Amino acid sequence: MGNNWIKTSKGVFKALVLIVLATHYTTLPAQTPDQAADAAVIRKIYDQALTDGLCYPWLHDLCFDVGHRLSGSIGAEKAVRWSKAVLDTIGLDSVWLQPVMVPHWERGAAEEVLVIGTKKRAGIRLDALALGGSVSTNDKTLSGEVVEVTSWQELDDLGERGIRGKIVFYNRPMDPTKIRTFEAYGGAVDQRVHGAARAAKYGATGVLVRSMGLRLDDYPHTGTLRYDTTVTSIPAVAISTNAAERLSALLQTESTARVSMKLDCRTLPDVLSYNVIGEIRGSEFPDQVILVGGHLDSWDVGHGAHDDGAGCTQSMDVLRYFRQMGYKPRHTIRCVLFMNEENGLRGGQEYAREAERKGEFHVCAIESDAGGFTPRGFGFDAEESVLNKFFEKVAAHQSLLEPYGLKLAKGGSGADISPLKGQKGLLSGFSPDSQRYFDYHHTAADVFEAVSKRELELGAGSMAALVYLLDKYGL
Amino acid sequence: MGNNWIKTSKGVFKALVLIVLATHYTTLPAQTPDQAADAAVIRKIYDQALTDGLCYPWLHDLCFDVGHRLSGSIGAEKAVRWSKAVLDTIGLDSVWLQPVMVPHWERGAAEEVLVIGTKKRAGIRLDALALGGSVSTNDKTLSGEVVEVTSWQELDDLGERGIRGKIVFYNRPMDPTKIRTFEAYGGAVDQRVHGAARAAKYGATGVLVRSMGLRLDDYPHTGTLRYDTTVTSIPAVAISTNAAERLSALLQTESTARVSMKLDCRTLPDVLSYNVIGEIRGSEFPDQVILVGGHLDSWDVGHGAHDDGAGCTQSMDVLRYFRQMGYKPRHTIRCVLFMNEENGLRGGQEYAREAERKGEFHVCAIESDAGGFTPRGFGFDAEESVLNKFFEKVAAHQSLLEPYGLKLAKGGSGADISPLKGQKGLLSGFSPDSQRYFDYHHTAADVFEAVSKRELELGAGSMAALVYLLDKYGL
Fold first, then answer.
1. Which of B1, B185, B189, B215 to mutate to probe the A interface, most A CBs <10 Å?
2. What's the mean pLDDT in A383-397?
3. pLDDT for res A30
4. Which residues contact B224 (CB under 8 A, 6 or more apart)?
5. Alpha-helical runs (H) found in B254-298
6. Which DSSP symbol is given to A202?
7. Whether A341 is catalytic
8. Is residue A25 over pLDDT 60?
9. Of A28, A372, B198, B229, whose Cβ has the fewest other Cβ atoms within 10 Å?
């Protein structure tokens, strides 16, 4: 797009094109004085986010000074210290650490997964990452024939006869026709979560899983698996989508193809870690909490920038905006950085238990854990009666959020806040554009550089705007 | 975001979270049979775009085999041949070249812009690109004191006294608080377009313009300027936002700071070039055209991937989808790749003249020239009566587009199609997410790798879906 207003006649028109294009989503309906006041506060929140935000430089430090931070690791310990120290600088009423015992799994030495026993491809390396929680190959190299399946049905049809002693290769891709990529993820991730357990039942010696990504590239995507305690736990790795395509093609032509894998992973005793929490006390309802949060832990590759450094630094900045604005909330506004979302959810469970003990009620818990992309809206989950009340009292004001491209809809939440469901408050999931999320999710590509400053800041502003409406109109 | 369904209880819930989150924007309202049929066609269009699309590999070839392609350059010539050859492969009813004479400006040797005459920063290079159309420094090095201004008022207040013999530095940033970035662009680009002419009036010898970008980085953004024929044309360069910040800081402390610049640009005689056009003839209304297009030319840096390789390859793929589907349109569906949008609009003007001569009516002309990002909707421009008719007859069906995140709104169009305004048909601008567009616009960073395959394909699908509704419900 250029500037054809270098010719005046057209110039005027193109200027118009630009401005109209720029504003056609941002015209407000006629407002009551009260709406106008709300609109002004929300505008001020976004102005701060876009001109004075700290979530982006904070994300930089989290990515480069701390780095990735799987539960139980030194990185996770550093992340706890770092985020506590940052929260201590923004003038909150209190900042504290909430102890929680977390699992401690280590990848160990880099995985080695090779194609062997073929003429064409012998010795080529398949880009791979052990799945979180996988057992090792016991200092040996595991090798075997490969059986490719794309459905549980195929697996069951092969049965013990077709599978015993072999390595099962799960190669059902995420469905690219799903417009919301989380739906495509939900339709494929069962292979990663349950593949090892179900193959082991038939005597498989190991599994390869096609990475959970929509793009063809060389990044393996790790993530948690779930073993079945009634059968042997077998080694499991994710291979990149390119590697999966290559292996699949090879198996068509060279039935003798075998794969060897060497994994060095181990699970160590649980480790003491923490949820990191800061809050601004509510003036009217100190025991009624509006929570914003994300998870502080990440997988052990890349920076964990989108997953979920973005959600953490956005949540921290939300509280800072209110402090900067001198806003006195009626309810307690709390930022919670949960530990261990990726491989246990211990932080979220402990947080809910503690809230129960203290008799705190969470009016709404908002989680940002879908990446630092352009905001599209928020999903809400609660009992029907609570949900309806919210849509009458708060969402009634959502025209105030439309200029910012936000839509409030029923359905959607977050993993860390899910244990709060028993409280019968609202649960909300921040819902940014999802198209690129699975290009980075659980990979070495999830780095600081993959996050857009503006998109991250717009997300933080959106979360703060929702918190403001919740605080003002309550339930 | 991980998978807390590693614990079955939570597993079920998280699966729910994912799916609900995934679907809460994609539930259709109750439909008539006719709507259901339309919904099925639109779904089929997106399925093709997302599973069988060619816009992404085409964009790859345009970027790597052709490269950037400013009007009059060898690149532009190659782009014409390349796109004609591709259109010839997709079984259209006709493909042709429409001759048009275009300007031919060349950058020549790389710009050299240095800070001189200071202790601290002497000799440091400012990342710069000559503005399109700029005159050279006549094989000499131009140097002078620098006067920084951030408004036309400041310029006028300085006047001849403060400006004669100096280099004017325009340093008004794009406004980051505008949610739609095109609005921020519209509010700053006057410095680039008119800065040289207005400074020359006061006797300036050259101008530096802060790049039109929202991010602080080292990429200068080129783009067109407009000289005033009544005053001398002076050399003009854009400097990166980082360079602008550095220079501005320096000027605070070292008033003796000077800048030297050497530009090698020249304007050559006009060159014969072409709009590249392909169409599927309409069965009922062959002389009534639904146009999809973008501009084939680009600036002479990077790949011109978002601006506007994306719009070109999307438009080409739209016609291919209909052919693949065996769809017989009632109106003629035409893809137009316009030449010379960036520095003249000659292609758009010639196209409109020719359409006039042939007595063709354009029901709607849709331009994609805002980048290959996630689709948000379309803007429409026309006479009030036409616009209202459209919103009654076609936009009435926009609930069919909501599952794909699309919104149809009044206002917005495109530069190349603007000369068709006289025809009293509809003009439409495809409106993708705008947050990252000005990270790439007119820079060396606008490369193939900056485009997401899915986002590009979703845009092409969205354009085809709109064309389908226009073809079915007409005006």
1. B1
2. 91
3. 65
4. A2, A3, A6, B131, B132, B133, B192, B193, B342, B343
5. none
6. T
7. yes
8. no
9. B229
In A, minimum Cα distance to B379 occurs at A21
What pLDDT score does B188 carry?
98
3-class DSSP assignment, residue B230: coil
What is the Cα–Cα distance from B79 to B58, expressed in whole angstroms? Answer: 12
Residue B34, pLDDT score: 86
What's the CA gap between A466 and A461, in Å, rounded? 9
Which of B437, B421, B159, B192 has its CA nearest to residue B311?
Answer: B437
- Are the Cβ atoms of B24 and A409 closer than 8 angstroms? yes
Question: What pLDDT is stored for residue B8 in this prediction?
Answer: 34
Using CA atoms of B226, B231, B237, B241 in order, give the dihedral in degrees to the nearest 10.
-80
Neighbouring-strand partners of residue A426? A364
The pLDDT assigned to A26 comes to 41
Class for domain B109-268, per CATH? alpha beta
Q: Which residue in this structure is represented by tokens 């000005």?
A: B438
Contact A464, A45 (CB under 8 A): yes
The residue ranges of chain B whose pLDDT is under 50 are: 4-28
> pTM score, two decimals?
0.94
**Residue B24, pLDDT score:** 41
For A413-460, the pLDDT digits (tens) are: 999 999 999 999 999 999 999 999 999 999 999 999 999 999 999 999
Mean pLDDT of all residues in A333-362: 97
The token pair that represents A323 in the structure block: 């402090």
Phi, psi of A38 (to 5 degrees): -60, -45
The DSSP secondary-structure symbol of A292 reads E
Q: Which is catalytic among the residues A341, A342, A367, A457?
A: A341
Fold category of B33-102+270-473 in CATH: Aminopeptidase (3.40.630)
**Concatenated DSSP letters for B193-220?**
HHHHHHHHHTT-SEEEEE-S-SS-SS--
CB A130 within 8 A of CB A106: no
Sequence spans of domains, chain A: 33-102+270-473, 109-268
ipTM: 0.93
Could you read off the pLDDT of A400-420 as tens digits, one per residue?
999 999 999 999 999 999 999
Look at residue A228 and tell me whether its pLDDT is greater than 70: yes
Neighbours of B422 (CB within 10 A): 10
pLDDT value at A465 more than 80: yes
Q: Token pair of B79, please?
A: 């782009």
